[in-house]
Amino acid sequence: MKTTSESMTDRYVAAALKGVPEDQRTDVSAELRGSIADAVDARIDRGEGADVAERAVLTELGDPTRLAAEYAGRPLYLIGPAFYPDYARLLKVLLSIVVPVIAVVVGAATAMSGDDPWQVLISAASSAFSVGVQLAFWVTLVFALLERGGVQPRRSASSWDVSDLPALPDRRVGLGETIASIAGLALLIWFLIWQPGYRASLDQATAAVPILDPALSTFWIPFLVTVLLASITLEIVKYRKGRWTVPLAALNTVLSLAFAAPAIWLTTSAQLFNPAFLAATSGEALLSLVDLLPTLIAWIIAVVCVADITEGWWKALR
Q1: Which of 201, 197, 225 is nearest to 211 (CA)?
Q2: Could you state, in order of their start, the residue ranges of all structural domains in the chain?
Q3: Distances in whole angstroms, Cα of residue 206 to Cα of each of 172, 203, 209, 277, 287
Q4: pLDDT of 109-167, one tens digit each?
């Protein structure tokens, strides 16, 4: 019958050998048992009891699973430091490019099928989330297999040089970015002011057919033009400041919502377009496009609004 101390040693060695390849177990068992015996004898020579000495030695050795990993040369982490920088960079690039593209494609396809804006948003978000999860899983799996397959990374840590440091990002608000933003806002203002005089042909004798509902001219169109003018002023102030700040991001959020919220509401409630204009453009070939137009416009406004607000806060807080 085995003593208590022998049972503890046997149990520890057996647990450790589970994580060691079959062809190494004999050597590892002999080495491990010898190390335990030497450590126990040393403690006994210092006056400790045999049971107490062996328990203390096994406690110092720690988890047998970790010890087995050291003997076998197998990492206990999924992706180690040699591959992690490349893994993180590749995953960030794929998520930042593929996921938004999928969201836009699925959203556009759903909108063209005639679904309402909320269904378009849900479909785009769920598809983007699913693709993001799949990307993260497969990229992680590939790098985990590389980690355990003994593949050497393309560059070792010792080959790094100071010249590899990336340049500091330029976080100033550029002139080109400001001009592009102002041009886009000015184009919207021009459309709101010009659209009441729209004519279906170049013949100036024909009656004008406003694109938007003439009833909007009493309040909503002046309101939207005012919001757009305030946004142009914000772009100028932001450029003169040279960078985004929290107050500027907050004001940008207010202005973006002030334009997007009524525009989406007017579009989805069939109050945006002039019925006469829709009737004039509702030929057999364009009928499906006209029916999809409100949903598509509402979707575009929502995406641009969210992107604009997110960009402002991201640049301000970083």
Answers
A1: 197
A2: 4-72, 84-156, 175-317
A3: 50, 6, 9, 14, 23
A4: 776 666 666 677 788 788 888 888 988 888 888 888 877 666 655 554 445 555 655 66
